[in-house]
Amino acid sequence: MIEKADQIFVFLQHWLMGFFPSEWQAATGVVVGVVAIIVVYPTLFALAVLLERKGLGRMQNRYGPNRVGPCGILQPVADAVKSLTKEDIVPFRADALVHFMAPLVLVVAVFMGFAVLPMGRNMVLVDMDASLLFFFAMGASTELSVFMAGWSSRNKYSLLGAMRAVAQMISYEVPLLLTSVVIVMMAGSLSLVKIVEAQDHFTGVFPNWYVFTPWGLAGFVMFLIASMAETNRSPFDLPEGESEIVAGYFTEYSGFKFALFFLGEYVGMFGIAGLGTTLFLGGWAAPFAFLNWVPSWIWFFSKIMLWICFFIWMRGTMPRLRQDQLMNFAWKFMLPMTLVNLLDAAIWRFMGEGWLRWVVCSVIVVGVYAGMGRMGMHRKRIGPRRYRYAE
Length: 391
Known about the structure:
By secondary structure, the chain is mainly alpha-helical. It contains 13 helices and two strands; from the N terminus they run H-H-H-H-H-H-H-H-E-E-H-H-H-H-H.
């Protein structure tokens, strides 16, 4: 019974494939998987938007959506209808084809990443040996769509917004990649399925996830920060700057095209959360040995939603950074820390078993973090924050 609950979607896929001739079954299985991804993640997008709007409302001492449907639960439906019915305005001097293609390229790129994410035991659309590289290749395509949107609008503000968005995404993609290299070193594979399988065992009742090591915890924190910057989430939401007069690279977008950008941003959040879960949090593996009876896909989506809740919490808590602070943090702090973390992981790997490597690797990570922090504060003369009121 437990096995059936865990593999229910795999059984359903095989059952649907059985209605077709044998030579069509492989293609049918792919189509069924693609349809499932296209249905599941936009549904989660609608739920996440509602959760974010109501959660931020509570943080800011207001109700949030509470008019459409019971307790406002139909607000995503109202938003979808509004986006579909709003007028689509294209600037007269814009490059109409590129202007139209930019949001489509973004949405296609972020959905392609889900093809290699293992969402449960035996639940991956394409199991390739270099699936991690494929995911990052698809993620890099979003930068092209952002620049397409800013350039095609023939608007100086849109172009500048696109350029600073691309600069931010490239800057934080470097530490994002380097934190993933640590996991590849330990798992010995670029396959996301094998990375999850390498963490799917226990010491007593506790899991052997990579996050529960000195280099894994440091990598997880840096991956989390870089993922917020890659998906343009607060406090790194400078590309959009929604509290400013203009909205960055999609200033000249309206109607359904704007909704596609919005969808792409949130689905990209699910994708990067799924990758972080796979690399550091055991993917679909249970958090305790005695909970192995819970279906693996439930654990995967539960971890993703916890990641999204953290993003929402940060948006309601942290103020937006300045552009110079954002870039300095990426190149002068994040990049050196990821390089040190690579060395730390190598030391862990070759020191062998025992408590000594825990001490050595922990001292290296904490010592470099504290040293770089104090050095940065000394150079910038950063002191206690003072609040002054206008006279």
